[in-house]
Amino acid sequence: xxxxxxxKDTVAPWNSKVIPPVTRGLEGWFTFDTDASRFSRNRxxxxxxxxxxxxPVAFTTHxxxxxxxxxxxxxxxDSVEMTILVIGKAVSxxxxxxxxGPDSPFYAxxxxxxxxxxxxxxxxxxxxxxxxxxxxxxxxxxRLGSTGSPTSGAANLGGDVPTNWGLRAVRAxxxxxxxxxxxxxxxxxxxxxxxxILSDSVIRIGGASSTFGGEVDISAVxxxxxxxxxxxxxxxxxxxxxxTTRLGISV
Length: 251
Known about the structure:
Layout: E1 4-6, E2 17-19, E3 26-31, E4 51-53, E5 57-58, E6 63-66, E7 71-77, E8 82-90, E9 106-109, E10 113-114, E11 123-124, E12 128-133, E13 136-140, E14 143-144, E15 150-151, E16 155-158, E17 166-172, E18 177-181, E19 186-189, E20 202-205, E21 215-224, H1 230-247
């Protein structure tokens, strides 16, 4: 049985549960290093662990995941509001074509499943964070498209260097999706401002259920089922940075 620690200027044992500075809507708090057998541990209190699919690789500072082969499958469902923050990087520069492909790296999210709205059948694009092109990071959250079918609702933030360590994030609210690189203090919003169309997919870390086959290095992931405010995101980001700074990763 683990212990409960407040994540403030402390180095918690790998098997402890933590209380980050923002607990509103907290669904997942995962950290990766040293031992891949620990990767499934969800450090959020009273939240279930993830399932390890394949064989992610452990490094002293992070885990390495490969889409479609080696990743984590959580029990966290898609929700109207969601915020996902990730400290990570792509192993290699992804292709220049947008939208993702067999060599594109995927950090976390629910891409892709089926719409759970019977009035809008079709693909279900769960909230996701990935590199769909060589110089951008994309935050995705399925929405009602102009034709009446689901659309990906993507927010594309340019000027990104995927192979650089960064604290990247996606935030979805009822009518807006945003992608962030908090290391660069940059963000971009989606053009689609229609209502969310939820997916039946669960959140995966390091690999989607389709399309994305690239490799990513991930040190930490925080998942919330609410749209955190800017101030709340800053608090969570600072808590995540304290751990990776100790490991030698500056974001």
